Amino acid sequence: xxxxxxxxxxxMSDIGVIARKLGVPSCDLERYGKYKAKVAARPNVxxxxxxxxxxxxxxxxxxxxxxxxxxxxxxxxxxxxxxxCLALREPSLxxxxxxxxxxxxxxxxxxVPMEDINLHFTGDFHAITAxxxxxxxxxxxxxxxxxxxxxxxxxxxxNRTLDVNDRALRGVTVNRxxxxxxxxxxxxxxxxxxxxxxxxxxxxxxxxLKRRLxxxxxxxxxxxKPVFASDLHAQDAMTILLKDALKPNLxxxxxKTPAFVHCGPFANIAHGCxxxxxxxxxxxxxxxTVTEAGFGADLGAExxxxxxxxxxxxxxxxxxxxxTVRALKLHGGAQKDDLSREDVESLQRGMCNLVRHVTxxxxxxxxxxxxxxxxxxxxxxxxxSAIKSATRQLGVEAVVCDVWGKGGRGAKELAxxxxxxxxxxxxxxxxxxxxxxxxxxxxxxxxxxxxxxxDVAFSPEAEESIRALADVCAVDxxxxxxxxxxxxxxxxxxxxxxxxxxxxRIRNVExxxxxxxxxxxxxxxxxxxxxxxxxxxxxxxxDDDGNIDGLY
Length: 552
Hints:
Layout: H1 3-9, H2 15-22, E1 29-31, E2 37-39, E3 50-56, H3 66-79, E4 84-88, H4 93-97, E5 105-106, E6 109-112, H5 114-118, H6 124-144, E7 151-156, E8 160-162, E9 172-174, E10 184-186, E11 188-190, H7 195-202, H8 206-214, E12 217-221, E13 226-228, H9 235-242, E14 249-253, E15 258-261, H10 276-285, E16 288-292, H11 297-312, E17 318-323, H12 325-331, H13 344-364, E18 369-374, H14 381-394, E19 398-401, H15 403-406, H16 412-422, H17 439-451, E20 455-458, H18 460-469, E21 480-483, E22 503-512, E23 517-522, E24 541-542, E25 548-549
Parallel strand pairs: 3-16, 3-17, 4-15, 4-16, 8-11, 17-18, 18-19, 20-22, 21-23
Antiparallel strand pairs: 1-2, 2-14, 5-6, 6-14, 7-12, 9-10, 12-13, 14-15, 22-23, 24-25
Helix pairs in contact: 3-16, 6-7, 6-9, 8-9, 12-13, 13-14
């Protein structure tokens, strides 16, 4: 039975039933059909609400099931009597049609309706794309209409966006052959990496959204002065396009657990977390909220803790680090074709990757942590025992879960242990760096404390960017998002395990004034991914009745 057949074999509840189960007033529910809705309620986090962050080790190309574990854990918590809600990111069409396929979980641990969520959902990504490109159009139009702001076309910084992987758009020329228009070079970002996605994920309400949109740095003038979206009077029109997208989306799991699914910044090239408003709404109505941060803990969890928690005031009561046998073997030197074979030696060598992620959460951020072993059918008892033995030496528990095949029933033990962690005395949560640290020091602290780097090397362009941005705002007051490969602690995707002594290369630093952070581009990381030799799109089918296969 395929994932889609499994999903269809389980009858979904009307979204009104799910809302009542959670406690959302009907007056705050804006339906998008029978199984999806926007929620217009204002967050009011319960004092004793518990927040559980799910993260992972550095993944293989197919991912390690972090979303699947998040969903299964939430279902399991409800099964053991803990009122629980999910808060997840929206999938991007880039991975859906690229390498990974859909991002709604798998097997019996899915959020549904899966096809809708993976595709157009409630239109949030389209609204973000439209608002982004409206701003770009207003910039070019201002230059065309006599250039009253004195914008230098060669110093336009704000890029157009599209929610598909398309490497051809990494460099384009606009206005070519257009009469009386100024030709200039540009590039596209994928929607999940654009600043408006980050703004929507961090904005608290419409006034805050409009304020943040106005602070987007779009260009410099011929005499070097910054031009913001507010100078173009663009923020109101952009807010109009985004007013509905600002409201979190409510759906459900196959286990009928309520799930807020809202915003979807990537963690390797953006800040990797769902919206603050969705997380806080979940914590308003539920006793336990399960959320996730993208890719490994060096990316998603670091940004969740150092950016999202810093901005929102949130703090996880427990952190779950997802690990798989196959990923640990890959980090231990096993070849990709051998990951399904028993190989305890490679697994033990690869444990260094898991150990570093766990100790970072425990020792750098001082948060309670537990390991969830996402079990695959090929995993052997010897391999599972090796993981448990290694984590036991750290004083950290590892719990096996089988949520793909059993749903919430496959994570009951994990759920019980997580609730115990959540009810321990409050931790002394700390950040990896202080807000007052200089920009270079923030990047260096992340690189050394979290990645294991010896030092950071800034390109001349990056150093000049930091100097130039100091004239625009108080850059040292902003948190930092590092864009780097998800496959390694370093900026080299081939450097697996837990490397140390390397130098992290920062080639540029970009200002995201509306989002309220800086983006440091490490290594060869690009903000517009490309498609693989055989993208997932070519494996998809739709029959004459509209039934889709191959989305996951």
